[in-house]
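Q: I have 237 residues here and want to know how they pack in 3D. Can you give me a structure?
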Amino acid sequence: MNVALTIIVPIYNEEDNMLRLEQELIDYLKIATVKTSVLFVNDGSKDNSQQFIEAICSRRPEFHFIAFEKNCGLSAAIKAGFDYVTSPLVGYIDADLQTSPQDFNLLLEEIEQYDLVTGVRSNRKDSFVKNMSSKIANGIRRAFTKDGMDDTGCPLKIIKTDFAKRIPMFKGLHRFLPAMILLQNGKIKQVPVRHFPRIAGQAKFGLWNRLVGPLMDCFAYLWMKKKYINYKIGKKS
């Protein structure tokens, strides 16, 4: 049976999470409602993450990896995953496991009717500062993009791969994935998912990344929206 869903997992200095991540993903593969594989994208980790990745992939045929030569950032890791996968659906989850792979099944229930389904984190287990900065950033982004999404930073998404491959990524665009699907005249939906405290590793984004950076990215998005080329092939030979 061909793989229907490939889950992209960007990795940057997550050695303390890797074994737990492996087990959580294995547990999900057993209950996934479609045939699923996992793609680790090592974003130039400086710790022992790559050794863990290679060991996991050597003993688990459903697991694969690509590794950057140097750190390029989260958007680049997601873009590389989009470019690499061949399954009709592509998913995304963070390695910190603050969202659960098992909730991919909730998104899969909706993906047939939509082109992107994203989680929205319920009862977030983050600090007050992180929650408030995220809420403000989402409000700013929503005002610019009119995408109607409450939590585009939620690291749990499924996208139809043909739409994902047409997204022109730039740094910071991982926050704009729903808006980029709308530019393609696609349909999007958000679904409540669970949220958990970070157990190991360190958060990769600070106040600058959550507020000032996204505000600057909004202007880049508006420029792209004006210049965006959208087409569909009617016939070919």
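Q: Anything worth noting?
A: The longest strand covers residues 5-11. DSSP finds nine helices and seven strands in the chain.
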